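Researcher: Go.
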Amino acid sequence: MAVGRTEGMKVGVAGLGLMGSGIAERLIGTGHDVWVYNRDRSKAKRFFKSARIAKSPTELAQNCGLVITVVTNFDAVRDVLFGKAGIAESKCRPIVADASTISPMQSEQCAQELRRRGIEMLGMPVMGGPAAAKAGELVPMVAGSKKAFAKARPVFEKIGKQVFYISEKDGAANAVKLALNLNIALIATAVSEGITLARGAGIDPSVFVNILNSTYFKTGLSEKKGPMMIKGDFTPSFHLKNMLKDLELASATAQACGITLPTTALVQQVFRVASNSGYSEQDYTAICAFLTKINGMEK
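Model: Structure:
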């Protein structure tokens, strides 16, 4: 099968949320000819002078050698790929790199369906938030055709500080992404419970966070987010509702593999209750505020 060309660095970005916008800005800033598309066209207005705005995913695919899709969930991925005026309807054959967080089975299904139509899709979930995307410091994980990966890699290296090629197996990168995200959720919950315990014992929680961050057990989350959690600053870099979605995907993937992840299942339920209690649109670390509330510790 012929693999699409990325020469000339014409790259399309479908999905202009926090992450998609960051990726588009980075590619524009590194000299690429960028096309963008978003279902809500108002989100594309900011790129009016710096990129070309496509009216549909089909138009995006018609003009780009590589299309990066970064949308909210599986339904949105399928709509961009196979919906009316979707990428699959294009007469051209770009490489598609899907950076959305979906399950391994869902990614495999999309890749195989596109392949039957002559289009190669790489699963390319990333680690890092919008700020990392703008700075070119994401960590992309890629699975799929080695030949397609080799052609797209120069673009991936512009948005990522380190690029990991996982396997030719469709969906493999998505499994690794979910394994990483469940760790983030568990760490956020652990730090939140530590802060809650310190407060409950009448101790300034900043003492707990400062000591934690002076030990071997510190994390990037405890260093960057810990002080913000204490202050009650839950400005979203990644919404709690999306972390819940990823925990649900991890649990479903574990079930499909015939394994159990008991701690993940428990934390999934905590995030579900927090989401239903009004914290869904806040940062995922707002699990700390939720614990404060259910323990009657709100000022």
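Model: The first helix runs from residue 18 to 29.
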